[in-house]
Amino acid sequence: MPIKNLIAVLAISLCSHVIAAQLTPQQQAAKERGIMLYNQYKTAIPELRIAAEAGDRESQYFLGEELRLTNRYMTTEAQKWYIAAAEQGDYYAMFRLSDTDNDLCNAMKNCPPGSRSSEDWTRLLWKTAEPLAEKGDGEAMMIMYNSTGELEWLERSASAGYAKAQWLLANRYKEGHGFFFPPWKRSEQIEELLRKSSEGNFVNGMGEYMGILQEKGDLAAARALLIKIAETGDEGAIGSYGAYLAHTPNTLDFPLDLVKGYGLIFLLLELDGGGGAKEYAEDILPEIAAKMTPGQIEQAKAFAKKWKATHPPLSYFPEKLGF
Length: 323
Hints:
Blueprint lengths: L2 H15 L7 H15 L5 H9 L3 H15 L4 H11 L4 H8 L4 H6 L9 H17 L3 H11 L2 H9 L3 H12 L10 H15 L3 H13 L3 H12 L4 H11 L12 H10 L9 H13 L4 H17 L13
Protein backbone atom coordinates (compact mmCIF):
# COMPACT_ATOMS: atom_id res chain seq x y z
CA MET A 1 0.00 0.00 0.00
CA PRO A 2 1.44 3.44 -0.87
CA ILE A 3 2.65 5.41 2.16
CA LYS A 4 0.17 8.22 1.55
CA ASN A 5 -2.76 5.80 1.55
CA LEU A 6 -1.40 3.95 4.57
CA ILE A 7 -1.20 7.14 6.62
CA ALA A 8 -4.75 8.03 5.61
CA VAL A 9 -5.93 4.61 6.80
CA LEU A 10 -4.04 5.02 10.07
CA ALA A 11 -5.57 8.45 10.61
CA ILE A 12 -9.09 7.10 10.04
CA SER A 13 -8.36 4.24 12.42
CA LEU A 14 -7.00 6.69 14.96
CA CYS A 15 -10.03 8.95 14.81
CA SER A 16 -12.34 5.99 15.34
CA HIS A 17 -10.61 5.22 18.64
CA VAL A 18 -10.29 8.72 20.12
CA ILE A 19 -13.05 8.38 22.68
CA ALA A 20 -11.97 8.96 26.26
CA ALA A 21 -12.49 5.96 28.49
CA GLN A 22 -14.96 6.46 31.31
CA LEU A 23 -13.35 5.05 34.43
CA THR A 24 -15.24 3.81 37.45
CA PRO A 25 -14.31 5.43 40.77
CA GLN A 26 -12.19 2.38 41.60
CA GLN A 27 -10.39 2.51 38.25
CA GLN A 28 -9.81 6.26 38.61
CA ALA A 29 -8.37 5.72 42.09
CA ALA A 30 -6.06 3.03 40.70
CA LYS A 31 -4.92 5.39 37.94
CA GLU A 32 -4.18 8.22 40.37
CA ARG A 33 -2.29 5.92 42.72
CA GLY A 34 -0.40 4.39 39.81
CA ILE A 35 0.77 7.77 38.53
CA MET A 36 1.69 8.80 42.07
CA LEU A 37 3.82 5.66 42.48
CA TYR A 38 5.37 6.17 39.04
CA ASN A 39 6.34 9.73 40.03
CA GLN A 40 7.96 8.33 43.17
CA TYR A 41 9.98 5.71 41.25
CA LYS A 42 8.00 2.93 42.90
CA THR A 43 6.41 -0.08 41.22
CA ALA A 44 3.20 1.13 39.61
CA ILE A 45 2.40 -1.68 37.19
CA PRO A 46 -0.56 -3.29 39.05
CA GLU A 47 -2.39 0.02 39.54
CA LEU A 48 -1.70 1.36 36.05
CA ARG A 49 -2.77 -1.93 34.50
CA ILE A 50 -6.25 -1.60 36.04
CA ALA A 51 -6.91 1.73 34.34
CA ALA A 52 -5.04 0.78 31.16
CA GLU A 53 -7.18 -2.31 30.68
CA ALA A 54 -10.24 -0.09 31.15
CA GLY A 55 -9.07 1.91 28.13
CA ASP A 56 -7.54 4.98 29.78
CA ARG A 57 -4.92 6.20 27.32
CA GLU A 58 -2.80 8.11 29.84
CA SER A 59 -2.54 4.99 31.99
CA GLN A 60 -1.69 2.97 28.89
CA TYR A 61 1.17 5.34 28.11
CA PHE A 62 2.55 5.31 31.65
CA LEU A 63 2.19 1.53 31.86
CA GLY A 64 4.25 1.29 28.68
CA GLU A 65 6.83 3.60 30.24
CA GLU A 66 6.95 1.62 33.48
CA LEU A 67 7.39 -1.67 31.65
CA ARG A 68 10.06 -0.26 29.33
CA LEU A 69 12.03 1.39 32.13
CA THR A 70 11.74 -1.60 34.45
CA ASN A 71 13.05 -3.97 31.79
CA ARG A 72 15.42 -1.39 30.28
CA TYR A 73 14.23 -2.09 26.76
CA MET A 74 11.05 -2.07 24.70
CA THR A 75 9.26 -5.28 25.62
CA THR A 76 6.38 -6.76 23.67
CA GLU A 77 3.95 -5.76 26.40
CA ALA A 78 5.31 -2.22 26.66
CA GLN A 79 4.92 -1.83 22.91
CA LYS A 80 1.37 -3.17 23.14
CA TRP A 81 0.38 -0.45 25.61
CA TYR A 82 2.12 2.31 23.67
CA ILE A 83 0.17 1.22 20.60
CA ALA A 84 -3.09 1.18 22.57
CA ALA A 85 -2.45 4.75 23.75
CA ALA A 86 -1.29 5.92 20.32
CA GLU A 87 -4.41 4.54 18.68
CA GLN A 88 -6.38 6.82 20.99
CA GLY A 89 -4.42 9.86 19.84
CA ASP A 90 -1.66 9.98 22.46
CA TYR A 91 1.24 11.64 20.66
CA TYR A 92 3.70 10.85 23.46
CA ALA A 93 3.08 7.17 22.77
CA MET A 94 3.48 7.85 19.05
CA PHE A 95 6.83 9.46 19.80
CA ARG A 96 8.00 6.41 21.74
CA LEU A 97 6.92 4.12 18.91
CA SER A 98 8.59 6.36 16.34
CA ASP A 99 11.84 6.02 18.25
CA THR A 100 11.93 2.21 18.54
CA ASP A 101 12.18 1.17 14.89
CA ASN A 102 10.25 -1.98 15.82
CA ASP A 103 13.52 -3.22 17.31
CA LEU A 104 12.03 -6.19 19.13
CA CYS A 105 9.89 -7.78 16.44
CA ASN A 106 12.41 -6.98 13.71
CA ALA A 107 15.16 -8.69 15.66
CA MET A 108 12.94 -11.73 16.22
CA LYS A 109 11.54 -11.56 12.66
CA ASN A 110 8.01 -11.89 13.97
CA CYS A 111 6.41 -8.50 13.29
CA PRO A 112 2.67 -9.04 12.77
CA PRO A 113 1.29 -8.31 9.29
CA GLY A 114 0.42 -4.65 8.94
CA SER A 115 2.77 -3.56 11.73
CA ARG A 116 3.62 0.10 11.55
CA SER A 117 7.21 1.16 11.12
CA SER A 118 8.88 3.92 13.11
CA GLU A 119 8.46 6.14 10.06
CA ASP A 120 4.71 5.43 10.02
CA TRP A 121 4.44 6.46 13.67
CA THR A 122 6.47 9.61 13.03
CA ARG A 123 4.17 10.65 10.20
CA LEU A 124 1.11 9.90 12.30
CA LEU A 125 2.55 11.93 15.18
CA TRP A 126 3.01 14.91 12.87
CA LYS A 127 -0.46 14.42 11.40
CA THR A 128 -1.90 14.42 14.93
CA ALA A 129 0.17 17.14 16.59
CA GLU A 130 0.80 19.67 13.83
CA PRO A 131 -2.85 20.73 13.37
CA LEU A 132 -3.09 21.23 17.14
CA ALA A 133 0.13 23.23 17.11
CA GLU A 134 -1.14 25.44 14.31
CA LYS A 135 -4.16 26.23 16.50
CA GLY A 136 -1.84 27.50 19.25
CA ASP A 137 -1.40 24.37 21.38
CA GLY A 138 1.98 24.88 23.05
CA GLU A 139 2.28 21.28 24.22
CA ALA A 140 1.71 20.02 20.67
CA MET A 141 4.36 22.46 19.45
CA MET A 142 6.80 20.98 21.93
CA ILE A 143 6.17 17.39 20.83
CA MET A 144 6.86 18.59 17.30
CA TYR A 145 10.19 19.92 18.58
CA ASN A 146 10.90 16.60 20.28
CA SER A 147 10.16 14.77 17.05
CA THR A 148 11.85 17.06 14.53
CA GLY A 149 14.61 18.68 16.59
CA GLU A 150 13.75 22.01 14.96
CA LEU A 151 14.38 24.82 17.45
CA GLU A 152 11.66 26.94 15.84
CA TRP A 153 9.01 24.61 17.23
CA LEU A 154 10.42 25.01 20.75
CA GLU A 155 10.53 28.79 20.35
CA ARG A 156 6.93 28.81 19.16
CA SER A 157 5.89 26.64 22.10
CA ALA A 158 7.61 28.99 24.54
CA SER A 159 5.99 32.01 22.87
CA ALA A 160 2.61 30.30 23.22
CA GLY A 161 3.14 30.28 26.99
CA TYR A 162 3.93 26.60 27.55
CA ALA A 163 5.97 26.74 30.76
CA LYS A 164 7.90 23.54 30.16
CA ALA A 165 9.03 24.80 26.75
CA GLN A 166 10.09 28.11 28.27
CA TRP A 167 12.34 26.26 30.70
CA LEU A 168 13.77 23.97 28.02
CA LEU A 169 14.37 26.84 25.59
CA ALA A 170 16.23 28.75 28.29
CA ASN A 171 18.50 25.74 28.69
CA ARG A 172 18.96 25.38 24.94
CA TYR A 173 20.04 29.02 24.84
CA LYS A 174 22.44 28.32 27.71
CA GLU A 175 23.94 25.56 25.57
CA GLY A 176 24.62 28.07 22.81
CA HIS A 177 21.66 27.47 20.50
CA GLY A 178 20.08 30.47 18.82
CA PHE A 179 21.63 33.74 17.69
CA PHE A 180 21.73 36.91 19.79
CA PHE A 181 23.07 40.35 19.00
CA PRO A 182 24.39 41.94 20.99
CA PRO A 183 25.55 38.77 22.81
CA TRP A 184 24.46 39.95 26.26
CA LYS A 185 20.86 39.69 25.06
CA ARG A 186 21.22 35.93 25.47
CA SER A 187 21.45 36.07 29.27
CA GLU A 188 18.53 38.52 29.41
CA GLN A 189 16.36 36.19 27.35
CA ILE A 190 17.34 33.17 29.44
CA GLU A 191 16.32 34.94 32.64
CA GLU A 192 13.05 36.12 31.11
CA LEU A 193 12.17 32.62 29.93
CA LEU A 194 12.89 31.15 33.35
CA ARG A 195 10.81 33.86 35.01
CA LYS A 196 7.87 33.02 32.76
CA SER A 197 8.32 29.29 33.29
CA SER A 198 8.35 29.87 37.03
CA GLU A 199 5.19 31.94 36.84
CA GLY A 200 3.66 29.06 34.87
CA ASN A 201 4.40 26.78 37.85
CA PHE A 202 6.73 24.42 36.02
CA VAL A 203 8.85 22.95 38.81
CA ASN A 204 12.17 22.92 36.94
CA GLY A 205 11.66 26.50 35.82
CA MET A 206 10.76 27.56 39.34
CA GLY A 207 13.90 25.94 40.70
CA GLU A 208 16.22 27.58 38.19
CA TYR A 209 14.59 30.97 38.62
CA MET A 210 14.98 30.64 42.38
CA GLY A 211 18.70 30.25 41.75
CA ILE A 212 18.72 33.51 39.78
CA LEU A 213 16.95 35.31 42.61
CA GLN A 214 19.48 33.92 45.07
CA GLU A 215 22.39 35.06 42.90
CA LYS A 216 20.88 38.54 42.78
CA GLY A 217 20.66 38.63 46.56
CA ASP A 218 16.86 38.69 46.66
CA LEU A 219 16.67 36.09 49.41
CA ALA A 220 13.12 36.97 50.43
CA ALA A 221 11.83 36.19 46.93
CA ALA A 222 13.99 33.07 46.74
CA ARG A 223 12.60 31.82 50.07
CA ALA A 224 9.03 32.43 48.95
CA LEU A 225 9.63 30.56 45.71
CA LEU A 226 11.26 27.60 47.46
CA ILE A 227 8.23 27.28 49.73
CA LYS A 228 5.96 27.41 46.68
CA ILE A 229 7.93 24.62 44.99
CA ALA A 230 7.91 22.50 48.16
CA GLU A 231 4.14 22.83 48.35
CA THR A 232 3.85 21.10 44.95
CA GLY A 233 5.34 17.95 46.50
CA ASP A 234 8.72 18.25 44.79
CA GLU A 235 11.09 16.07 46.81
CA GLY A 236 14.15 18.19 46.10
CA ALA A 237 12.48 21.39 47.24
CA ILE A 238 11.09 19.71 50.36
CA GLY A 239 14.55 18.43 51.23
CA SER A 240 16.13 21.84 50.69
CA TYR A 241 13.39 23.68 52.57
CA GLY A 242 13.72 21.34 55.53
CA ALA A 243 17.51 21.57 55.59
CA TYR A 244 17.48 25.36 55.38
CA LEU A 245 14.92 25.65 58.18
CA ALA A 246 17.17 23.47 60.34
CA HIS A 247 20.20 25.55 59.27
CA THR A 248 21.82 22.43 57.82
CA PRO A 249 22.98 24.59 56.07
CA ASN A 250 21.48 28.07 56.51
CA THR A 251 21.57 28.89 52.80
CA LEU A 252 18.60 31.25 52.36
CA ASP A 253 18.56 32.80 55.84
CA PHE A 254 15.33 31.17 57.02
CA PRO A 255 14.53 31.61 60.73
CA LEU A 256 15.64 28.50 62.62
CA ASP A 257 12.81 25.96 62.93
CA LEU A 258 14.15 22.53 63.87
CA VAL A 259 10.71 20.95 64.27
CA LYS A 260 9.47 21.92 60.84
CA GLY A 261 12.84 21.26 59.21
CA TYR A 262 13.12 17.75 60.66
CA GLY A 263 9.49 17.03 59.80
CA LEU A 264 9.90 17.98 56.16
CA ILE A 265 12.97 15.82 55.68
CA PHE A 266 11.31 12.99 57.61
CA LEU A 267 8.72 12.88 54.81
CA LEU A 268 11.40 11.79 52.35
CA LEU A 269 11.90 8.47 54.13
CA GLU A 270 8.87 7.09 52.28
CA LEU A 271 10.64 7.51 48.93
CA ASP A 272 12.17 4.05 49.02
CA GLY A 273 11.79 3.28 45.32
CA GLY A 274 15.03 4.94 44.24
CA GLY A 275 16.14 8.44 43.39
CA GLY A 276 18.29 9.04 46.46
CA ALA A 277 15.86 11.08 48.59
CA LYS A 278 15.51 8.41 51.29
CA GLU A 279 19.27 8.06 51.58
CA TYR A 280 19.63 11.84 51.83
CA ALA A 281 17.09 11.93 54.66
CA GLU A 282 18.77 9.08 56.50
CA ASP A 283 22.07 10.94 56.28
CA ILE A 284 20.89 14.37 57.45
CA LEU A 285 18.19 13.56 60.02
CA PRO A 286 20.63 12.43 62.76
CA GLU A 287 22.52 15.71 62.39
CA ILE A 288 19.32 17.70 62.92
CA ALA A 289 18.09 15.38 65.68
CA ALA A 290 21.28 16.04 67.64
CA LYS A 291 20.06 19.62 68.13
CA MET A 292 16.57 18.56 69.30
CA THR A 293 14.85 17.14 72.34
CA PRO A 294 12.85 13.89 72.11
CA GLY A 295 9.70 15.95 72.46
CA GLN A 296 10.64 18.15 69.52
CA ILE A 297 11.28 15.09 67.37
CA GLU A 298 7.79 13.80 68.14
CA GLN A 299 6.36 17.23 67.26
CA ALA A 300 8.28 17.08 63.99
CA LYS A 301 6.80 13.70 63.11
CA ALA A 302 3.32 15.04 63.87
CA PHE A 303 4.04 18.01 61.60
CA ALA A 304 5.12 15.62 58.84
CA LYS A 305 1.88 13.68 59.17
CA LYS A 306 -0.17 16.87 58.91
CA TRP A 307 1.83 18.11 55.89
CA LYS A 308 1.29 14.81 54.09
CA ALA A 309 -2.46 15.01 54.69
CA THR A 310 -2.75 18.58 53.38
CA HIS A 311 -0.34 18.66 50.43
CA PRO A 312 0.13 16.82 47.12
CA PRO A 313 2.05 13.52 47.21
CA LEU A 314 5.82 13.60 47.09
CA SER A 315 7.13 13.47 43.54
CA TYR A 316 10.35 13.43 41.57
CA PHE A 317 8.40 14.95 38.67
CA PRO A 318 10.11 12.75 36.06
CA GLU A 319 10.05 13.99 32.48
CA LYS A 320 7.21 12.49 30.47
CA LEU A 321 9.69 11.81 27.67
CA GLY A 322 12.58 10.88 29.91
CA PHE A 323 15.10 8.13 29.31
